[in-house]
Amino acid sequence: MLENSIESLPGTSSTTIRKFKSFGINTYFDLLNYFPTRYENYSIISKIDRIQVGEIVTISGKIVEAKNQYTRSKITIQNVVITDNTGTVEVNWFNQPYLIRVFKIGVNISVAGLVKQFGAKISIEPKEYEIVNFDRSNDRSVLKHTGRIIPIYSEKRGLSTKTIREKIYAVLDVACLRKQAETLPKEIILFNNLIDEDAAYQQIHFPDNLNMANKARGRLAFDELFSLQLANNLIKKEWQKEKVGNVFKISNFEFLISNFINNLPFKLTSDQNKVIKEIVNDLKKITPMNRFLQGDVGSGKTVVAAVACYLSFLNCYQSIIMAPTEILANQHYQTISALFKNLPVKIGLQTGSNKSIKVKTQNNNIIIGTHALLSEKLKFKKVGLVVIDEQHRFGVNQRAFLKEKTLNSHLLTMTATPIPRTVALTLYGELDQSYIAEMPQGRQIIKTFLIPKEKRLDGYTWIKKQIRQNKAQVFIVCPLIEESESETLKSVKAVKIEFENLKKIFSEFKLGLLHGKIRSSEKQTIMSGFKNNKIDILVSTPVVEVGIDIPGATIMIIEGAERFGLAQLHQLRGRVGRSNKQSYCFLYSENVTEKTIKRLDYFCKNNLGVKLAEFDLINRGAGNIFGTQQHGFVNLKIANLFDFELINRTKKAVEHFVEKYNIEEWNELNKRIEKYKVKNISRD
Questions:
Q1: Protein fold of 44-147
Q2: In whole angstroms, how far apart are CA 373 and each of 303, 318, 352, 379, 386?
Q3: CA–CA–CA angle 238, 243, 244 (5° rounding)
Q4: CA distances from 680 to 246, 272, 609, 655 (A)
Q5: Is 238 exposed, middle or buried (0-12, 13-18, 19+ CB in 10 A)?
Q6: Alpha-carbon span 433 to 279, nearest angstrom
Q7: pTM for the whole thing?
Q8: Could you read off the pLDDT of 389-423 as tens digits, one per residue?
Q9: Which SS3 state, helix, strand or coil, does residue 547 take?
């Protein structure tokens, strides 16, 4: 029943169904998993003669009068008089004249609201209302919007919380008639003190009290983390049974690999050497490597991937490096080409604007590109290794399609997004994990400052001096492209407006403008100009967040810094400090609240990405770790990634389940974990 399409929901218009589908609600089960953000307590039901000023109550009665009143200030008042067997009371709505068509004389109504007094007159300021059967108006079981604790939902696509509440109530009403099979073994439920799942869905949406709402949240959060970690566990077991399509020989090439590393123009850090050993050890095996490499911005992940690509080349296999943006793909192409300039390794680039590879890829040993690599026309030869950078930015289907094109090749996924260890283990438990924390030798810590408003002009003077005397290059990042009309965003710097202002301030210098709406070819021209010192100051949106390596850039200015998560600020800061020169990062913020100052001050004092991510996880929640463009990392609906105690409990429950049960015998649970198995690039 819960698999029923949302289209079969009784009394629901095609417009409402279309709106639900637009944000991923396609079935009854999807709708039940659209959870409330908070609750309002309208559970005090009172007779009209018992209501007291200042309390929020629900009253039920018959409408005896309903009319629109028009004021000189063009405000319309919907004046409704309600009576029960103890008295009458006025309820007033404002500027909703259509309500009078609903509030017909003689209709029975239940209203929840705040009791107010004007002079000697008592009235109710309504919060919610519903038309009811008078004989059952005091029966909480038939009340959806009044007379109980009611759920408040995030409103999307023009769907009101009232509409969402009504539709969820309808699904629960049907679900109550057909008890759903329990998804967890009885001993796991008892050991973890969980309520049953049917009750949890009922109580999360329409709780008897807030204690039951919390118990429901606990059960459903447990289910979500259990399903995710069980899927990871089963995926890992499945992959361990598989055989790699193209087997690597290692011992034959140890000298050449060592020679390649020794001839690099820099010395690898101990962390880089450790990760290379882990990768080489994976490549020795006949089971496909599936490793997740985390490394702070500028820590040298690309050269580690290059060593793996070289080993693939020595085994006469191709390597594919896939990046989410053209800027990052071009950056990888330039970096990899430089690393292999003295070796007979042929490197190809395939992006939306640079299709150097037509159909056959046999002539290329390493192929670097964006989603353009997914073109069905491209035929790969013998792929030994696939590297996916910033993998969360690719869609599920894109990753799965790339996997199919390359058979069971070894897989290395990388990210510069700092993720707390516990979060990474929960989200990517099926992957072997490596971490590079150590920065390359000679790199200096970037000095970071939060600049007060009154010091802005002094800052500009200092920057001019740095450009003149030290030939410094400068990034200036603004959060928006166009100036915003939104009241909350009016103070946020828009990149186009700021660019015009900065041209006047820095009139003696060359400025460039970069944002997402510029054509790819123009972006490359601008980036090339900046890299070759033809541009002194690059004014940009956060499109520079990843993949831009300009050794001459030593100053980063971030406007509207309060609008970014700390991890995203860290990514932006990582665009400078990529040489042995001292670099600086200046934060400007129009928001001077204590909370904002505390966050930004913490950022100024800390340069380790994982510490910043953990701070944001505690203070802003999981959704803010990865920034607006990186929310694909976290797709949990109710569980909290900072609830380490629950993560540990679900992990132990999964270990018990896997040891004792066969997932095929648990139909409903098996269906639920399928979505996680697909999202983790299953190798079927």
A1: OB fold (Dihydrolipoamide Acetyltransferase, E2P) (2.40.50)
A2: 21, 13, 9, 10, 12
A3: 115
A4: 22, 26, 24, 20
A5: middle
A6: 10
A7: 0.69
A8: 876 555 545 555 666 667 678 889 888 776 666 67
A9: coil
